[in-house]
Structures are given as C-alpha cells and as structure tokens.
Amino acid sequence: MTDEPRFGLTATASQTAGPFWHLIDFPAWADLLRADGPNAEVAGERIILTGRITDGDGAPCPDMMVELWQADPAGSYEGAFNGFGRCATDDDGMFRFTTLKPGPVRAAGNAFQAPHVALTLFARGLLHHLVTRLYFAGEALNEQDPVLSAVPPIRRATLIAQPEGAGVWRLDIRLQGERETVFLEV
Amino acid sequence: MTTSDQPGYRPAAPGSQPPLDAPAYGSTHKRHPKQPPLRIAATLTETSAPRMSAGLYPSHAELAKGPGWEAQGERIIVAGRVLDEDGRPLRGTMVEIWQANAAGRYNHERDRHDAPLDPNFKGEGRIFTDAEGWYRFTTIRPGAYPWRNHHNAWRPVHIHYSVFGAGFAQRLVTQMYFPGDPLLPIDPVFMAIPDAAARDRLVARFDLDIAEPEYALGYRFDIVLRGRAATPMENPA
Ligand SMILES: [Fe+2]
To answer: Does the keyword Oxidoreductase apply (chain B) (predicted)?
Structure first.
C-alpha cells in the first residue's frame, strides 16, 4: 500500500463522545420502521438486531452510542429506505434495532457483497469511533464476501449474527480480549 | 486479490488522530481493541451515507434564548464551515452539538457534579450546513467540570460535535475547545492527539466578525472531513 500524496487540509481529530452523549439521543431512532419515520411505507422483511457490548473484563458497556447504516431490501443505498439508526446501550450493554433485512450490495465488477449492516460505536474511553459489520448466518454470499474473506477464518464468527427466535438476530461485540470483535479501518 | 471499484477515503495523516490506547486516559484501558483494525477497500457501504434533512431530524440552533426562556451564562455564537480535505464544502450535512451548562453541569441524569442545573438550558442542538458548508449555533459558554480520571482532574471547556458528511467513512465525533484554556495542556483527552497542529485545530478562534454586537461573542470552528482517495485500494486478501 502506498501513501497517497496529501494536499490541502487535514481531517479534524476525533475525540471521545464521553458519557453524556445521550443529550443527542432520540430512542425512537433505534426503530427504523417507526410510524412517523422515513421508512414507514417501505416493504421488506422486518428484523430485530440485538447484542451485548462488553469490555476487556467482559463487563457490559452501558453507555455506548451505536449507529447503524445499511442498504434497503434490494441492496441499494439510493432508494426510499433511509438505513440510518442510532441506539443507546442499556444497563446490560445491550443494543437493539428494528429494521428491514438488507439485500446483497453490489461489489467490484459484477460481484455482490453478502447482506450486512455497518455498525459504528462511540463512547467514553473511545477516542475514535469503532467500525464493524454485522452479517447474517446461513447466507450463501457470506462465502465470497470481500470483507469477510479478508478476515482470518478463526475470527469471522465475530461478525456473523445468529438467529435467536423469529426475526431476531444476535451479535455480541467484544471490544477487547478473548474473541475480540474484528474492527474495520474504512 | 479483490479490487474495489470505489475510491475510498484517504487514510489519516500521521499523528493527526488520537490512538485508541491512551494510557493517561483511564477509560481506554479496557475499551481499546488489542488487535489492529482490518483495513478494507471501500465499498458502497462506506462511500454512501444517510440522507438527512430538517424534515426528518428537526433542527434548532438557538440554545441560549427562546420565547419565554433564557439560559444563564455568557452568550456565544459558534460558527464555521464543514469542508473536506480538498477544501470542498459539505452541503446539507447534519451537525449536532451537546455541552455542559455555564456551571459545568450536563442536563443528564448520570452527571453527579455538584453544580447547579439550569432549567432553561438543555444543551443540545442540531443544524444542517448551508450551500457553502456553514453552520451556526447560539449558545452559552460552557463551564469546566471535574472528572475522575485522576486526582483533581478537570476537563477543559468544550462543546461536543457530531458530523455526518457525504460518506459513511467521513463520520466524525469530536470536541471544540476555547483559546487560552489553562486546562488544555494537562487534559489527557486533548493531549492524546500526537500532533500539536492537529490539537490546535480543535481550538476555536475568537472572531469578532461572528459576534453579534451587544448580544453575544463569536467563535469560529471549521471542521474538516476526510477527502476522497484518488484511486481505489486493493484488498490484501
Ligand atoms: Fe463533555
């Protein structure tokens, strides 16, 4: 990898969101299908995405801001569906989004990425946000997904949500230590 | 070898971003990943971004005063432009701020600092940049507040910022500081940024042209989001 020449300005430094970011939280934003939201009329498979975020001691992180970004059920980012959500973790470190299952997203050439959502984590103790992805267990496209393929096989499971009852998918996120989640530099 | 056909965003300039493992900032100890991040070639997921608008996300830029209410403290206007590294303005991008009140207390149930709450100061705002990338809030100068990172630890006066940009990979959450604050050189959050020039860019400039005569002083704080790379990157797979 060669460094690109730099010119002009330099991107502003990141700083922690701290413990009081909830001043910009709207709990309704965790439900992308909310009746008064942008997606109330969009059709698709309704799903719930949930999981626990834990630190290097395995302790739940109860103060996280989790943001979600995803394509629509057809795999497009350009359609009527606005695939953005924001969620606060609760006292047990759990996040929970209600959304539509995304479709395969176009990749390089004629290839497709497996259905996935991007997750961004902000919190006290994170001087820069963390980025990861949530994939769905059992998708045939998982085998050829360009991002999953770049993850060492032994760590891929940290990105793959498992079904947990009808329409519910669970992925726990471990910030540090054993079975640490794979985080992405995008 | 998988090649992306999406030019992504330029990597951070050396020293311009804080590390995740910052020993002087205690909360990073158990929260920083030990494994290096996996650098991936940009896909549509990273180069697209939510389309946000004031219709869906109500904007309000007046934190200091409104019909029938008025916050305590020194009124200030904070304004600036949101640009990318090539100097291009980001139009219609969502800028959110949140902050402590003039006494250094957040309107937040978990803030236990023994300082008065101000019932007229909520401390959060949201606005969308105009065609030239400008944003502008009227607020009050926040107070410094203590935290438990180490003995006698105080955060410098700051306003938290959240900015989206035109691509998922441009997302930024940061803090704006005030010129001349004696707490800056001893703050582990601010000092975690290795490059002094990058730190300086988080300090707003006092700007009389932004001030409103006989109403509020002015500060200028520009925000730069990552620029697009010239060419797509190749995945190491
Ligand atoms: Fe703060």
So the answer is: yes
> Alpha-carbon distance A159 to A182, whole Å?
7
Structural domain span for residue A29: 21-174
Domain ranges (residues) in chain B: 3-34+42-224
Interface confidence, given as ipTM, is: 0.96
Query: Which CATH number fits the domain that encloses residue A161?
Result: 2.60.130.10
Closest chain B C-alpha to A113 CA, distance in angstroms:
9
Q: Is residue A131 part of a domain?
A: yes
In terms of Cβ atoms closer than 10 Å to its own Cβ (0-12, 13-18, 19+), residue B112 is exposed
Smallest CA–CA separation between A15 and chain B, in Å? 4
Reply yes or no on whether B158 is catalytic: yes
Architecture of domain B3-34+42-224 in CATH? Sandwich (2.60)
Residue A28 lies in a domain: yes
Instruction: State the pTM of this model.
Output: 0.96
Q: How many domains does chain A have?
A: 1
- Which of B84, B98, B230 is opposite residue A20, by nearest beta carbon? B98
| Nearest alpha carbon to residue B165 among B17, B7, B30, B9 | B9
Q: Tens of pLDDT along chain B (237 residues)?
A: 344 667 899 999 999 999 999 999 999 999 999 999 999 999 999 999 998 888 888 899 999 999 999 999 999 999 999 999 999 999 999 999 999 999 999 999 999 999 999 999 999 999 999 999 999 999 999 999 999 999 999 999 999 999 999 999 999 999 999 999 999 999 999 999 999 999 999 999 999 999 999 999 999 999 999 999 987 776 554
